[in-house]
Amino acid sequence: MTTAQASPNRQTALGLARGTAGGLLLGLPVLMTMEMWQHGYALPTWKLLLLWGVNFLVLLVLEYYSGFQDEETLADVAQDAVIAAGLGLVVAAALLWIFGVIGPGMGTREVVGKVVAESIPVSIGASVAAGQLGTRGQGEDRKRREAGYWGTVAIALGGAVVFGFNVAPTEEPMLVGLMMSDVQTALLLLVSLVQTHAVVYALDFRGSDPIPEGRSPLGVFFRSSVVTLTVSLLVALFLLWIFGRVDADTGLVPTLHMTVALGLVTSLGASAAKLLL
User: Fold this and answer.
1) Cα four-point dihedral sign 21, 125, 263, 116
2) Which of 77, 137, 142, 132 shows the shortest CA–CA distance to 273?
3) Phi, psi of 59 (to 5 degrees)
4) Where along the chain do its domains lie?
5) What residue ranges are annotated as transmembrane (predicted)?
6) Second label for 81, Cα 20 to 30 Å away, from 74, 88, 138, 254?
């Protein structure tokens, strides 16, 4: 019996199992990262809620553009995002308990904080798995939604959050940023810009885009690659702020250096998302 012919209950079970596998694929490294456990406990509640809210917006973007147009309405997209977020919470709670990171004797705020924080990469992995690892019904060749310019920017933002979240809780981006000189920071920024353009347009990866006919390569560079890098840097700055690496008392130069350091990761995530979705 094929997936397309399976009963609704079987399809639901397969979808949840697939989402769980995708959640583990993306979220397991963070689930076993001590810094993330600490942030889940130490982050102010309002920051934790803000981060979870941003994650839900990312889930909406991923579900909208990775789902099949003839299968999903906007209500379906919202429902799938809720399911991915809920699956993230359940899987994160179960594994954190198995690992002994949460358990009896801990305060409610500590347990909830750790589970909510760790659920974010798991929920994103579940969403990506639903769109990218699923099966198509009976060989039908259905097309995904056309993103358009702003949709592509939104996808890039989602990819930047996904990749950045796996690194931002650690101390390494902060340390790298503080160790780099101004010249090294400028070179790293250039590397980020080059890879952002090359991955999507120049290296012929599967899913990469040719420069449209009649469009100036320089125009595409600024309108697409420079904008993508800018979005990636803003995501990097947001994550550094969320995790307390930068604040109002941090100098402009150290903030810039740390943002560029983490921006290498977020820009790679933004480029990868454009290829995948």
Assistant:
1) negative
2) 132
3) -60, -40
4) 8-139, 148-276
5) 12-34, 46-65, 77-103, 147-165, 185-203, 224-244, 256-276
6) 138
d(Cα 166, Cα 28) in Å, to the nearest integer? 10
* Contact residues for 257 (Cβ-Cβ < 8 A; gap 6+): 177, 178, 180, 185
**Tokens 């769980």 sit on residue:** 20
Contact 92, 115 (CB under 8 A): yes
Extract the tokens encoding 89: 């919470």
The region of weakest confidence among 2-11, 19-28, 40-49, 157-166 is 2-11
In whole angstroms, give the CA distance from residue 40 to residue 117.
5
Which residues are registered as beta bridge partners of 31?
A: none
- Are 242 and 117 in contact, with CB atoms under 8 Å apart? no
Residue with tokens 């949709």: 151
pLDDT tens digits, 162-202: 889 888 888 899 999 999 999 999 999 999 999 888 877 65
Report which residue type is found at 102.
I
pTM for the full predicted model: 0.81
